[in-house]
Amino acid sequence: MKLSHSFVKTLRDAPKDETAKSASYLIRAGFLHKEMAGVYDFLPLGLKTLKNIENIIREELNNIGCEEVQMSALQNPEPWQKSGRWSDQEVDIWFKTKLSAGGELGLAPTHEEPITTLMKTYIKSYKDLPIYAYQFQTKFRNELRAKSGIMRTREFLMKDLYSFCPDEESHTEFYHKVEDAYKRIYERVGLGDCTYQTFASGGIFSKYSHEFQTVLPVGEDTIYFNEDKSIVLNEEVVVPEVLDEFNIKKEDLQTENAAEVGNIFTLKYKYSEPLDLGYTDKDGNKNTVFMGCYGIGVSRVMGVIAEKYADDKGLVWPEEVAPYKFHLVTIGEAAAKLGEELEAAHQDTVLYDDRDLRPGEKFADAELMGLPSRVVISDKTLAEEKAEITDRKTGAQKLLTLDELRDILSKYEKDS
Ligand code: ATP
Ligand code: MG
Fold first, then answer.
1. Three-state SS for 137?
2. Is 8 helix (H, G, I), strand (E, B) or coil?
3. Contact 25, 148 (CB under 8 A)
4. Which atom of ligand 1 is nearest to the CA of 154?
5. CA of 94 to the centre of ligand 2 (A)
6. How far is 82 from 102, CA to CA, in rounded Å?
7. Distance from the CA of 210 to the center of ligand 1, in angstroms?
8. Which residues pair with 96 in a beta bridge?
9. Helix, strand or coil, per DSSP, at residue 47
């Protein structure tokens, strides 16, 4: 991709009310545009980054047998009334609106009720189970305070997965598969060594739910952990009974701020009972479907990655998430010709800064945008058949021969 082709320009300043470092860089680097508090547009580089995260999640879920759907954002109140979650007293973050034909509808803050209702059409017998269906979908939540850029917004992209099993045993088996898939997802998006599976409050049916919490100074949550981090607890479960159960003392626990990047819940019959989702077993008896739900805040994950790794010069993207792997800058006419050629051959991996700007401005923008490797070819290095490559994260620099550069670009082209 050539930077001169994009309408997006890097900005010197971020909006004054934007306090999170990630949001300020994401806006200045041209990944996001702020519409209003808690509402953002994804621009080409930001959209590509978001899609890379989405694709990692999709691959890992497809690997454990999940099926992708896309449900509607507009919600019929009826199933929500049956579960008790239409009321603003029960759920305080609804966006609701009136139909001009009469009646009310809501903008989905989550999808347990509609997907449970949908499954009534397809689940009749034990032969129809299990079902694992997920989607990437925009959720709407009237959050009292939008915060920290895309880490807490009123409109955000969530991956939500719902499992429908005949019994607890088959549910538990799948639950463990999701735990493993989540570990691989956080690993691949670059958050593997700072994301912990925590014990969280689980509601009425199972003792605990689990959250995935990324250690982050500006995170809204506090996690408690023992020395080797084998036990990590959300704040709400640090109570005497739980401490006794884990055989630990509160004084022995350390704390960190963290951001919730995902969660997994055993729902059991919480929605299948009120919405009457049942199946007939082998003996012809009627049973209730055993459910689970599993969320990941896709746009929040992008914000957390940006916040976690940004330095004083700008963003720093992990390799699998970065919108492009290489940020190419050329200096001089002969080098520019080679630049055009390399960009044309590697359009998915090379971002070529072909704008009519001074090299210093291009280098500063490369640091702001944070692609993993910057490649500089000048007429001078070209005369020696060489190019300079700089690692954005470590600053390590190397001279490559043009053959070596071509090999590296081809390798990434294949991998991407
Ligand atoms: P939180 O405690 O952060 O409000 P939640 O308990 O409401 O999260 P869920 O309803 O289960 O979370 O949503 C699934 C995932 O969606 C969360 O783990 C989080 O990563 C993300 N998420 C939730 N609310 C927001 C929001 N307002 N903006 C961006 N992402 C969000
Ligand atoms: Mg919430």
1. strand
2. coil
3. no
4. 27
5. 11
6. 20
7. 13
8. 106
9. helix
List the pLDDT tens digit at each of the 416 positions of the chain.
999 999 999 999 988 889 899 999 999 999 999 999 999 999 999 999 999 999 999 999 999 999 999 999 999 999 999 999 999 999 999 999 999 999 999 999 999 999 999 999 999 999 999 999 999 999 999 999 998 999 999 999 999 999 999 999 999 999 999 999 999 999 999 999 999 999 999 754 567 899 999 999 999 999 999 999 999 999 999 999 999 999 999 999 999 999 999 999 999 999 999 999 999 999 999 999 999 999 999 999 999 999 999 999 999 999 999 999 999 999 999 999 999 999 999 999 999 999 999 999 999 999 999 999 999 999 999 999 999 999 999 999 999 999 999 999 999 876 66
CATH tag, 326-415: 3.40.50.800
Residue 210 near ligand 1, beta carbon < 6 Å: no
- Where do the structural domains in the chain lie, given as residue ranges? 3-309, 326-415
Does 149 sit in the ligand 1 pocket, CB within 6 Å? no
How far is Cα of residue 405 from the mean position of the Cα atoms in its chain?
A: 32
Fold of 3-309: BirA Bifunctional Protein; domain 2 (3.30.930)
Query: To which H or E segment does residue 258 belong?
Result: strand 254-268
Both tokens assigned to 259 = 């951001």
| Closest C-alpha residue for ligand 1 atom 14 | 295
